[in-house]
Amino acid sequence: MKTTIKRCDWCNSDPLYQEYHDNEWGKPVYDDQKLFENLILEGAQAGLSWITVLRKRHEYRKVYANFDPKIVAKFTDKKQAALLLNPGIIRNKLKIKASISNAQAFLAIQKEFGSFSEYQWRFVDGSPIKHRFKKSSEVPATTPVSDLFSKDLKQRGFKFVGSTIIYAHMQACGMVNDHLTTCFCYSNE
After folding, report:
1. Structural domain tally of the chain?
2. Are 59 and 82 in contact (CB under 8 A)?
3. What is the CATH number of the domain that holds 147?
4. Which residues touch 7 (CB under 8 Å, ≥6 apart)?
5. 3-state secondary structure of 145
6. Is residue 21 part of a domain?
């Protein structure tokens, strides 16, 4: 008898989605470089599906120096022009420009707080918020916390960090556990 693993329904049957869901999504992240990667990719995803971003993540890591904010912050006009020609990433001029200015703002937060992780996790008092949603329709697109986090990032010069994008970032980085209670990952979090 074959056992079916019960997952959150958003990751459907795509193996790449399932791998991401099972091994990354919702697990608390405290590493600044991984947090920076997720912020940039969540911003790149705006208006697109997350699977599109996952399929391009390898190329992003390559051309974004494995998401080293110190390197990204210094991307030149020539580098931006090259990125716009790269079909392996999302070729949106505003998103590419935002990734560079976001790297600069990210470095400023690191300087102020010691790490981006320290800054970010203070929005949830250092501990993940564990929800108990049974259906995807119960999961919000934004929360008062994501509103506050988004507003603060915008005041610090970040772009493509609206509350919906930031809530997705919070979910991905484990600041909130939005695995459905029926998902095998829920009890593991």
Report:
1. 1
2. no
3. 1.10.340.30
4. 18, 21, 22, 183, 184, 185
5. helix
6. no
Other CB atoms within a 10 A radius of the CB of residue 138 amount to 12
Cα 180 to Cα 139: distance, rounded to the nearest angstrom = 9
Q: Which residues does the annotation mark as catalytic?
A: 20, 42, 50
Residue 170 lies in a domain: yes
In a domain, 13, yes or no: no
Structural domain boundaries, residue 169:
28-177
Helix axis angle, 93-113 to 32-45, nearest 10° = 150
pLDDT higher than threshold 90 for residue 114: yes
Q: pLDDT-based confidence at 77, cuts 50/70/90? A: very high
Spatial distance between the Cα atoms of 167 and 104, rounded to a whole number of angstroms: 22
Q: Rounded to the nearest 10 degrees, how much is the dihedral formed by the CA atoms of 147, 136, 180, 162?
A: -20
Calculate helix-pair angle for 15-23, 50-63, nearest 10 degrees. Answer: 80
Q: Does a structural domain hold residue 135?
A: yes
pLDDT of 44 above 60: yes
**What integer pLDDT is reported at residue 179 of this predicted model?**
95
8-state DSSP, 182? T
- What is the predicted pLDDT for the residue at 2? 57
Using the predicted structure, report yes or no on whether residue 189 has a pLDDT greater than 80: no
